[in-house]
Specification:
5-stranded antiparallel β-sheet, 12 helices, 12 strands, 13% strand, binds pyridoxal-5'-phosphate
């Protein structure tokens, strides 16, 4: 059977496939660049694993308190080495990215301290962590003040505004690398470095934390290479490589990470406790695979940008921009188009492909959200997934794909559903 017949069997028409192939022809150089970055990052991960003498005993399960868990300790050294930090906390007890960020923030901030976001509104779920939207146990409830400086209309940093916002009480600055559910640009690691240098020039002892979600391994350097005191992320995104079934990480200075460990477990216990319950093989192997998986996801994002831009939709980043995370936003303009797009992603999945995604009120978000994912790990967004809040400009955020070929199929299927719904007409 030929490839086009195989695609037809999956429900992708010849017209959709041909458009895809035409777009791919133009992307050879960009894909080669992505492969070169993946090669670099693969070497970086391998070097960290070899340096720390990863061996089969690292994969053993521990239970109970998890004292003397060598596999856990070596894994944390691998992360710290790879991201060039003094220390790391990499745990299945960190339930998700929001939890990792909540631990990082609440471990460093106390009553009377001020938290500053110099990059505008933070990710939706952090609004309750901070207390921008009231929630029990928010930082605001514990007397932590919050200040925000919005980006300038062109998406750049408002340096004058940031200078004016930093004061005696400013203790920690939170910088979100990825756009999240916004249509601003994601920041390059170089831009983040410039921002950190500016902030530390005004107040050297302020802590700079970077929400690194979706950014890991997209570039050759990470925010910890350019002055961040802490970088924070989720293991069901990039660094888990699709294999980690749960978890989060915080890498940073020894002082910061120690406080994070006390906050995560208990004062006095810190990093010494936390049984691994047998998940470490997936953490190690996922980290090993992560550079390649991220490369596949990036190819998918760029492919989607080029297809949808050609069809007249606004895509962020656009078809030619450089990439700083794996997220691709496509402004589809209507609820119906968002649903059709997500149906296509769902139909391409290895798991739950027969399910129809519908918008729903998801905890932590203030509007209905639609999500398409047929993932091996629930909610894993390093696996092929699309989601977005149902509000103008009706942007769907597309990300992931454990293999490039799966990402490609998902994008073709999304287009097929838009064609089938009469929203897109192919010439
Ligand atoms: C995904 C994400 C989070 C939150 O992570 P969850 O695992 O969904 O809790 C925070 N910030 C950014 C930028 C993200 O992309």
């Amino acid at each position: 059977m030929e490839l086009d017949a195989m695609y037809a069997q999956l429900g992708v028409s010849a017209a959709v496939l041909q458009l895809g192939e035409r777009v791919l022809e133009s992307l050879k150089d960009r894909f080669a660049e992505i492969d070169a970055t993946a090669e670099f990052n693969q070497a970086k991960v391998l070097h960290a694993m070899q340096n720390n003498r990863v061996n089969a005993t690292c994969f053993a399960a521990t239970t109970g308190y998890g004292y003397d868990d060598m596999g856990r300790e070596i894994l944390e050294k691998v992360y710290a080495d790879c991201f060039h930090t003094e220390a790391a906390l990499v745990r299945p007890q960190i339930t998700c990215g929001t939890h990792a960020l909540a631990v990082a923030l609440s471990s460093q901030l106390g009553p009377g301290d001020e938290l500053l976001s110099p990059v505008g509104r933070p990710y939706d779920t952090l609004e309750e962590v901070i207390g921008i939207r009231p929630s029990p146990c928010s930082l605001a409830e514990y007397g932590v003040q919050y200040r925000q400086v919005d980006l300038l209309p062109d998406g750049s940093f408002d340096y004058d505004g940031i200078r004016a916002a930093i004061n005696d009480k400013t203790k920690l600055v939170t910088i979100q690398r990825s756009k999240g559910y916004q249509t601003r640009p994601s920041f390059s690691v170089k831009q983040i470095g410039e921002l950190i240098r500016f902030i530390k020039g005004i107040k050297p002892d302020v802590l700079c934390m970077v929400d690194n979600c979706y950014g890991e391994f997209v570039e050759r350097i990470e925010p910890s290479d350019v002055g961040a005191d802490m970088i924070v992320g989720s293991l069901i995104k990039n660094p888990g490589g699709g294999l980690a079934p749960i978890g989060g990480y915080i890498c940073g200075t020894a002082a910061c990470v120690e406080r994070c460990a006390y906050r995560l477990s208990a004062p006095g216990l810190g990093q010494e406790v936390g049984a691994n319950l047998g998940v470490l093989p997936s953490f190690y192997q996922g980290f090993f695979l992560a550079p390649t998986v991220v490369a596949g996801a990036l190819k998918g994002a760029i492919f989607a940008a080029n297809i949808y831009e050609q069809l007249g939709f606004k895509v962020i980043p656009n078809s030619t921009e450089s990439r700083h995370d794996i997220i691709q936003a496509v402004e589809l303009g209507s609820r119906e188009a968002m649903v059709a797009f997500c149906k296509g992603i769902q139909a391409a999945a290895p798991v739950d492909s027969y399910v129809t995604p519908e918008p729903w009120a998801m905890p932590g978000y203030d509007t209905d959200v639609i999500m398409a994912a047929g993932a091996f790990v629930q909610g894993s967004s390093i696996e092929l997934s699309a989601d977005g809040p149902i509000r103008p400009p009706y942007a769907v955020y597309f990300q992931g794909g454990l293999t490039w070929y799966h990402a490609k199929l998902g994008i073709l299927q999304s287009l097929q559903k838009l064609v089938d719904a009469g929203i897109v007409t192919l010439a």
